[in-house]
Input
Amino acid sequence: MMMAIMLPSAAPAILTYGAISRKFAEKGAPVVPLAAFVAGYAAIWTGFAVAAVTLQLLLSPTIALSMMLAVTSAVTGGGLLVAAGLYQMSPLKFTCQRKCQAPLMFFARNWQKGYVGALRMGLSHGLYCLGCCWVLMGLLFYGGVMELRWIVGLALYVAAEKLIPAGNRLSRFTGILLIGWG
Output
């Protein structure tokens, strides 16, 4: 499910990697499959998903969840919303968001050759993406980890935040809304 949420928003980086790779191949450089870059990105989000599930299992005796795996406590839900809102306006969020929004610059500064290089770039870009969105993924526990409309809404929001030029302003505005909602 984490991949279903995050891979669409990684499309610009994945497509940019593919285009750069093809240009190198046209000049005779060895071709590294796109899958190597995507595997690094996916590894980061898979690791995050495992950590989130582990945390959920550890906290499940103390935090009540609905059948859709949403917190049932108004205080806990409000805390999740406020925490997400505050993070939406943090310098770390904006630093990571800049890297995610400009994949061409990311590759210009971080290009590495070969399979290991592609995997490392995928891991690195995945970490920036994680830094940008990890708290938003915590909102799955507010709306319901198993609630399809909530999952689709978060996926669309994350994509919008990364793809539109005013993503930083959207993040700030959303942060204020989340704090108020919390």
Summary: The chain has a mean pLDDT of 89. The chain has one domain: 2-25+33-181.
